[in-house]
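Reviewer 2 asked us to include a model.

Predict the structure of this chain.
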Amino acid sequence: MNRTEQVAYHEAAHAVLAIHYGMGLSGGIDLNAETSVDGAFGNVAVNLWQFDSSTSLQEQKSVLVCNLAVICAGAASDAKLKGIPLTSALDAQPGDYKKAVEIARTCGLAADEYEVDFMVKEVGLVRASRDPEKREVWEAIVRVATATLEAGGKLSKEKVAALGAVSHSLGG
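Predicted model (structure tokens):
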């Protein structure tokens, strides 16, 4: 698998989990988009849920887990494709890791940096790796990645949403 194909699967994984958790997309996939991380490419515009401190603690935790899983989904896909440990795959994605840490820090549920790291790696990343193990979820990721590659590296939000659908919701 070449680098472009790996990026297609990485971005497709972010998109598919966002769709199925009910977050949706605010834009499509662009495999050639430069990111804020030197040398990194690829982008998909996913919506993340906003934290609401007036909701129950259980609801706040659910929002956190889903947000972290969507951010960590690309690394989980990388780990599956390359046969490497999850944490190694996340370490190789400093932009995704930084975003996940930012989310865990700002949610108000972590007491210290140890808990932030635990939330990212032992909650979000593990959750992100479980859903693609389901056949229908991995098939959706493959559909989105394949279509993105066939379209020259760009796929609209509407096409990603249509191809990323699976038979049931994965949320919560």
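The chain has seven helices and three strands. Residues 3-163 form a domain with the Methane Monooxygenase Hydroxylase; Chain G, domain 1 fold (CATH 1.20.58.760). We have added this to the supplementary material.
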